[in-house]
Design a protein that fits this description.
Pathway: Carbohydrate acid metabolism. This protein has about 210 residues and is of the alpha/beta class. The protein has 9 helices and 8 strands. The two termini are about 25 Å apart.
Length: about 210
């Protein structure tokens, strides 16, 4: 998938940290119904690889299922065996970036500083996860974004809420989308509350697009 195709999709990455395999299908089905495309199961979730494999088999032709917290090559190899095509990292590991790209994966690379950003870019990354965004903030985001190549897309992750003012503060500085964490899903959340959270994020995103 090229960059244009990626940015045409709903650029809200649904992070389901802590989700159990037995509930994943119901929750992801709702996300797809609401228009989400990028769906991440962090590897520090219970039986994460089993969950990712199940979701890839069930929904892989309708959305982009993948793994988060992919910190090294050995973990990446395990994820690749599931057939998933979305890789999200909290760190910059050039070997992970290279192998993910060689296997046709979409990879969002976690960075916090300009030095990390350019290491990621020089390793082939085009999608940067600005993490943790609640520490970097809009001021830090603006400073980092100002020195990056224009063909690199940035996605704040960490502390993002279904808040149009917060989202707009980043969008106005060039953010292309967001990673949605605990404000969307946390372990043990009810399905009704999750549905409301997912709906609220979509409404907020639609508002900032006007």
């Amino acid at each position: 998938m090229n960059m244009a195709a990626i940015t045409e999709k709903c650029p809200l990455i649904a992070i389901l940290r802590g989700i159990k395999t037995e509930e994943a299908e119901q929750y992801v089905s709702k996300l797809i119904e609401l228009g989400y495309y990028f769906i991440e199961v962090p590897l520090n979730s219970p039986n994460a690889l089993d969950t990712i494999r199940l979701l890839q088999q069930k929904f892989g032709d309708r959305c982009c299922i993948g793994a988060g917290t992919v910190t090294d090559v050995e973990l990446l190899k395990q994820v690749l065996e599931t057939g998933a095509k979305l890789i999200v990292t909290p760190n910059v590991n050039p070997e992970v970036i290279k192998l993910a790209k060689e296997n046709g994966c979409i990879i969002f690379v976690g960075i916090m500083t300009p030095s990390e950003a350019f290491l990621a870019i020089n390793s082939g990354a085009k999608l940067l996860k600005i993490f943790p965004a609640e520490i970097v903030g809009p001021v830090g985001f603006k400073a980092i974004k100002s020195v990056l190549p224009k063909d690199v897309s940035c996605f704040p992750v960490g502390g993002v809420k279904a808040d149009t003012a917060q989202m707009q503060s980043y969008i106005s500085l060039g953010a292309k989308g967001f990673g949605l964490g605990s404000a969307l899903y946390s372990a043990g959340i009810s399905f009704d509350q999750f549905t409301q959270n997912a709906t609220n994020f979509q409404l907020a995103w639609q508002e900032v697009q006007k």
